[in-house]
Design a protein that fits this description.
With 184 residues, the protein is mainly alpha-helical. The protein is built from seven helices and four strands, in the order ααααααβαβββ. It has two domains: 7-119, Orthogonal Bundle (Butyryl-Coa Dehydrogenase, subunit A, domain 1); 122-171, no CATH class. The structure holds flavin-adenine dinucleotide.
Length: 184
């Protein structure tokens, strides 16, 4: 098995490395100290296709694979772990749940804006009494509006990445009377 990166993957890696060195590295300390959310950088990443790397063109992404996605997150995280996790949480936790489990209508409605970085997505799973044990979560769809309000300041456990700036908050809710999860 050949584990070497392809020329295209090496090019993408070099492009993101260069972008991170130019647009992120000089500001990391200042952003960190002032708790600044780098929205301009996120918009630029969206224009580069990096806010929806793994999604097909029909949903607004560049249609690349997980290797390319991981390379991008790795290069961003080398310079600023916060930017890396913003991209990863937005892509994997919010957008990818819609891509994997959403209806066709939901994909077409939500993914293009997420993949372009026009809208930032957050995923609210953690509750005050359920973290690792996600199956113990109690939130039901009826609580969604409350969750929306609480999540605006970071989620019930203060753990929902990008909740404060998210244009789309995806909530895991429990279907009352069932052990399964419903989608929202
Ligand atoms: C950087 C970061 C980003 C996050 N982003 C999000 C987000 O976007 N959305 C969201 O919903 N949540 C998010 N979270 C929350 C995350 O999902 C929870 O922190 C995680 O599920 C752990 O839950 P907890 O912190 O309540 O710890 P707990 O679940 O209470 O665990 C505490 C400790 O007990 C251990 N433990 C737990 N259960 C068992 C067991 N059965 N047996 C043995 N040991 C056990 C754990 O390993 C840990 O050491 C984020 C967390 C971090 C750190």
């Amino acid at each position: 098995m050949d584990f070497a990166l392809s020329d295209e993957q090496l090019q993408l890696q070099a492009m993101v490395r260069d972008f991170a060195a130019r647009e992120i590295a000089p500001h990391v300390r200042a952003w960190d100290e002032s708790s600044h959310f780098p929205i301009d950088v996120i918009r630029q990443l969206g224009r580069l296709g990096l806010m929806g790397t793994i999604f097909p063109a029909e949903y607004g992404g560049p249609g690349l694979g997980y290797i390319e996605y991981v390379l991008a997150v790795e290069e961003l995280s080398r310079v600023d772990g916060s930017v890396g996790i913003i991209v990863a949480a937005h892509t994997s936790l919010a957008a990818n749940h819609i891509f994997v489990a959403g209806s066709e209508d939901q994909r077409r409605r939500y993914l293009p804006k997420l993949a372009s970085g026009e809208q930032i997505g957050a995923w609210a799973l953690t509750e005050p009494r359920s973290g690792s044990d996600a199956g113990a979560a109690r939130r039901t769809a009826a609580l969604t509006s409350v969750m929306r309000a609480v999540s605006a300041v970071g989620g019930p456990a203060g753990m929902v990445i990008v909740a404060a700036v998210a244009g789309l908050l995806l909530g895991a809710t429990r279907d009352p009377g069932s052990r399964s999860w419903c989608r929202q």
